[in-house]
Amino acid sequence: MKLTDSLLQERILAAKNQSLRWLNSMQLPDGVPGVLRVSEYHQPEYWPQMLLSGTYDGTLARVLLGDHIEEKKRLADWILSHQQEDGYFLLPGLRWEDTWKRPDIEATRQYMRFHATNYCMGALEVLEQLDRIELPFLTPFLDPQYFWAWLGQRDMRDPWLEGNNIVNLGSFLLLEQQRNPTGAAAQRLQDMIFWHNQQSEPYSGFWGPGQQFSQEALLFALCGATHNLHVFYALDEEIPYFNQSMSRCLEQPIAIRSACIDVDIIDILAHGAARCPHRRDEIEFWLRGMLVKLLDFQNPDGGFPDTLLGERGYDGWVKGYKEPQGYSNTFATWFRWIAIAMISEVLWPQWQTWRFRNTIGIGYFKPGIGQIQP
Fold this sequence. Notes:
The chain is mostly helical. It is built from twelve helices and two strands; from the N terminus they run H-H-H-H-H-H-H-H-H-H-H-E-E-H. The protein has a two-stranded antiparallel sheet.
């Protein structure tokens, strides 16, 4: 092993211990063990809603890093207490008039319900409590006519937002397929793959118009595609133009931007390392450079910030919780450790036992079992 690799590994191990200490310091005093604040700035007495976000992000981060969670069932009970009768999870007491993702309030509601539910699913899975979840809202999506109508309503002019919608629904369908292998979910997932294959852009392998003409459109399509591609990985489906996806990711600057953008690029490259072996040297070079920048970005308290400028809130809750950027928070700490762990797995397979989530969405990692042709 190169000396530089050995030094990088030492830095990762030291950073991991610091992050675990920080994550555990977010424990709510006198609360259910494992219920975490979002950040040092977060005052739960004023913003109790954010404890759900702090807890599912923090739980996924702790398990990824190998932390031992003792009272898994009790923590799962607390998370499940946020599930509605229809099966969706939601921040408690959220008022829809304080939210916005799309002009259509129903589109906003669906996005936010999908998002919270998938993250709670991820937390329950790493707590080994996923068998306790029921998703009655999924029933209409199993109907082919309803499902194709839903796909037809996806506005791929906003591929980042829709990528989240698609991976979230995909995660629910995959859970249903596992429980009922001969049911309708398997066919709906194949419909989803077919729909994607009809629209894949040869320039990038991503989805969404105008990528060739705008760096912003390309970046939004890339960040969206990270999510869509998880459906392909989970089903071991061939990915059209995936070699082009490698090119578009490798053209991105090796620089810290945001926790979302950084992990999205790294996710595609890390999955591409096995699926496009002829690009492996380029991918490793890019990831190694990014690893150093990620480790340098850790805060002195051991957590990670999202970015350093502006305000950070809960996605879609536009009139809700806000905190200054720069604070270590559970969301960014989890996302940045996903990125570091994926890079580690590419550079030094099985050096560490990273516990990635098994439900698709950010934090899911499935090294390739087959090679995608260039």
